Amino acid sequence: MDTTDTKSGEMQMSTAQGPKKSLGSKLLSFFLSCMPWAIVATLLWAGIFVKPTPDVQVVIPPAIEDRDKIYGIAALTSETLWIVGNYGKILRSEDAGQTWSGQDSTTEKHLQDISAWDSDHAVAVGNGGIVLVTENGGKTWDEIDVPRSEIANKLIRVHTYADGEAWAVGELGMILHSVDYGRTWTRMREEEDVIMNDLIKLDDGKIFVVGEYGRIFRSEDNGQTWQDDYTDSPSSLTAIDFRSPQHGVIVGLDGVILATEDSGETWTMISSDISGNTEHLMDVQWSEQINKWVTVGNKSRWVRFSGDLTEFSASNLSPIDLSSHTELAVLDNGVIAVGANVCTVDYEGNKYTTLGN
């Protein structure tokens, strides 16, 4: 027998059948084949049973945002302030404007002004003839139905007086009067194509309203009848205040300043050469703290002048911020002005601070 041929044949048969797999190789192969299904099952389980807890960073917007325009202010004290502005914004501060709390006005209309009888009772007015009142410090505001025109109805200023009395003025010769904390209103003058911009009632009962075209409307019988006075002003009059029954000041566009020393019987125009200002002036108030008149207006302009109209100082609230302002309130150590921004400035004009944003 040829043993060489036999062994060669056995070797060829063994090579044809191939090597046998070990147990470890079989287990690895099984594991790899199952991995895709395990991954799918894990993701499915996570999608059903695992609840994500995202770490969301809450951004709290400032009380007064860059887009806001604040048109009116009421200062009960130097600490307690109310301000109103565009899209129904109402804010209140108890710390001289360092922090503000928003209040739900229930409207999107622009609010032009606010005035308060006390810390609970206040009234706000604005576009479309809207009138809002509160009896609980602004926790809730109620919209009040008032006389309206079929043409235009924006109310621009409102002032409150003792025993629940209030007066408001606006477009088309609108003069409104209330004696019940703003709950009901009576129109005190017929429609006329003139905008009434501001009003003041004096302790002796006289009422003065200032408006377009340099006109002054005066009543000595609580608004039952009115005397229409024309002044030398070629520009519209925007605001009025009195420091006594005899002495009053009116300001207006183009830097107009008018003064009276005889209870409004006559008014004298102050030349811009004397006042040092030709920018629009939008509000004026007398400050007992410095015994001077204080005004604010366009391009951060403010003018301070003495009661006897002999000393005038015109400058900017800020050397770099040219924001325009529509109204001011006198505080113990300076003034707060509202408009394109809300700011305070000390009476010397050395410390200017923006508030709320």
CATH-defined fold name:
Methylamine Dehydrogenase, Chain H
CATH superfamily: YVTN repeat-like/Quinoprotein amine dehydrogenase
User: Structurally, how many domains make up the residues?
Assistant: 1
What is the CATH-assigned architecture? 7 Propeller
Q: In DSSP terms, counting alpha (H) and pi (I) runs of 4 or more, how many helices?
A: 3
- Low-confidence region ranges: 1-18
- Rg of Cα set: 37 Å
Return the structural class.
mainly beta
How far is the first residue's CA from the last residue's CA?
110 Å
Helix coverage percent: 10-25%
Biggest β-sheet: strands ordered side by side in the sheet: 1-2-3-4
CATH structural class: Mainly Beta
Quick one: biggest sheet?
4 strands, antiparallel
- The number of strands is 28
Q: Which geometry do the CA atoms define?
A: elongated
Please indicate the percent range of residues in DSSP E strands (runs of 2 or more).
35-45%
What does this protein look like?
There is one protein chain. The chain is mainly beta and 357 residues long. It contains three helices and 28 strands. Strand 7 and strand 8 form a beta hairpin. The longest helix has 27 residues.
